[in-house]
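in:
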């Protein structure tokens, strides 16, 4: 299993000399398990994944269409804004399966159609579906498991404004948990602990420092739907995790600040390996 980070920032892209080390693109993580390509979220980092996939699609002068499975944690803008700039979606022959939470008011398909309706974007999802990749949409219920040959993708619902899905991706040997945009105050979320138990890697929202969250620095962040590195470590310890990846970095956090957050997390993590998510970095399992 190979996990690669294409976008690690929260809320809004932050291109800057002060964010060059960890990156400024919003959430997108790819997982290659067996022969399956699974992608978690379609933030602005999805554009970079698309550029990389073009090398595979047109390798050695031949057309090699791809099939991929794109799971959205939720559909806030920073998790879907890469879709219109994902080049493989415009290429006929590619197959892209999209999954997201089933909502009472709107479906995943309707949400993505809305993002690309006039005057927001010149090319609609409907036009892409006719002239580009074959796209299908699956609206998922909380707790639903999707089997992609020998790879399973399980979800559980966590706490974030308008809801969020956490995903666990497992093959016969390894599993990773992707838990972005979640908040649980000082009580560990039993849903997250259950799905994370004994996984190899936890990718966890650590957008704020404890001081930022409680309002000692800036305004309080209660009910904003994000967590701290302390909660990340507590969850990893309680889940018997091997590796913790701090994710969804605050837009105003510079590389230096993220270095400091990573160091602070390592001090309290014990035997758990800790790293701050960094664009282009890869975890091999």
């Amino acid at each position: 299993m190979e996990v690669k980070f294409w976008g690690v920032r929260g809320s809004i892209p932050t291109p800057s000399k002060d964010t060059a080390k960890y990156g400024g693109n919003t959430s997108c993580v790819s997982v290659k398990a067996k022969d399956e390509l699974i992608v978690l979220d379609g933030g602005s980092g999805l554009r970079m994944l698309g550029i990389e996939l073009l090398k595979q699609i047109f390798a050695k002068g031949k057309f090699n269409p791809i099939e991929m499975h794109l799971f959205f944690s939720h559909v806030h803008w920073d998790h879907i804004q890469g879709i219109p700039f994902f080049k493989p979606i415009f290429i006929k022959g590619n197959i892209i399966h999209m999954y997201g939470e089933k909502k009472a008011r709107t479906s995943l398909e309707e949400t993505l159609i809305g993002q690309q309706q006039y005057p927001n974007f010149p090319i609609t999802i409907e036009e892409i579906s006719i002239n580009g990749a074959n796209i299908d949409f699956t609206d998922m219920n909380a707790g639903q498991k999707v089997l992609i040959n020998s790879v399973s993708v399980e979800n559980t619902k966590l706490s974030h404004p308008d809801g969020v899905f956490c995903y666990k991706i497992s093959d016969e040997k390894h599993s990773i948990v992707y838990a972005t945009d979640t908040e649980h105050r000082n009580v560990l979320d039993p849903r997250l602990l259950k799905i994370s138990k004994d996984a190899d890697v936890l990718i966890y929202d650590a957008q704020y420092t404890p001081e930022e969250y409680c309002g000692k620095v800036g305004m309080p962040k209660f009910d904003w739907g994000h967590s701290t590195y302390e909660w990340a470590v507590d969850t990893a310890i309680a889940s018997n995790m091997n590796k913790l990846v701090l994710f969804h970095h605050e837009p105003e956090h510079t590389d230096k600040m993220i270095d400091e957050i990573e160091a602070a997390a390592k001090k309290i993590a014990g035997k758990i390996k800790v790293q701050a998510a960094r664009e282009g970095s890869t975890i091999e399992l």
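note: The mean pLDDT is 95.
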